[in-house]
Amino acid sequence: MDPAVTPEPPDLQSRATGCVGLASAVRVPTAERHAGPSGRHAEDTLGWATHHIEKLRAGATVSFRPRGRSMSGRIESGELCTVAPIDPEALAVGDIVLCRVRGNDYLHIVKAIQGNRYQIGNNRGFINGWVGPNSIFGKCIRIEK
Questions:
Q1: What is the CATH number of domain 10-144?
Q2: Are residues 21 and 70 in contact, defined by beta-carbon separation less than 8 angstroms?
Q3: What is the tens place of the pLDDT at every residue in 83-124?
Q4: Which residue pairs from 2-9 have beta carbons closer than 8 angstroms and sit at least 24 positions apart in sequence?
Q5: Is the pTM of this model over 0.85?
Q6: Which tens digit of pLDDT belongs to each residue from 113-138?
């Protein structure tokens, strides 16, 4: 089987791989990759939220149905989540954000804020880590069944 797979359209990808707290990846065809200074390919994999993040960066609001149990109690698996672009300076502890921590995409909670750093974690007590404002792409503004 060819390891290079073309990503599904965003609406299918979010249903198929939009895992809350899980990082799934799609290989990018070799012809579309560019090695960075380290020789590694930054575009080797696309996280489940890559297409949503691109839209948020362009100023659009996005909706998707993440799957998983890491946010149970706040977001149940398969609920429709609407995420809007946000200035990270407007964030507060307890906000649910679409972010990237150590290369993994999450729809998780801001657990703490220290100056220009944000601690991200799930609703089950796990801490993903600290990120800067450039790793937060939007805030969840609505959750629907």
A1: 2.10.109.10
A2: yes
A3: 999 999 999 999 999 999 999 999 999 999 999 999 999 999
A4: 3/27, 4/28, 4/29, 4/30, 7/46, 7/50, 7/51
A5: no
A6: 999 999 999 999 999 999 999 999 99
Report how far residue 8's alpha carbon sits from residue 113's, in angstroms, rounded to the nearest whole number.
Answer: 35
User: What DSSP letter does each residue of the chain carry, written as one string?
Assistant: --S--PPPPHHHHHHHH-BTT---EEEPPGGG--B-TTS-BTTSEEETTHHHHHHHHTT--EEE--B-STTTTTS-TT-EEEEE---GGG--TT-EEEEEETTEEEEEEEEEEETTEEEEE-TTS-EEEEE-GGGEEEEEEEEE-
What 42-46 contacts at long range (C-beta under 8 Å, 24+ apart), as own/partner pairs, is 46/7
**What's the CA gap between 107 and 100, in Å, rounded?**
9
Cβ atoms of residues 14 and 65 within 8 Å:
yes
> Token pair of 121, please?
């974690």
Do residues 28 and 43 lie in contact, with contact meaning Cβ atoms separated by under 8 Å?
Answer: yes
The token duo for 89 is 């300076």
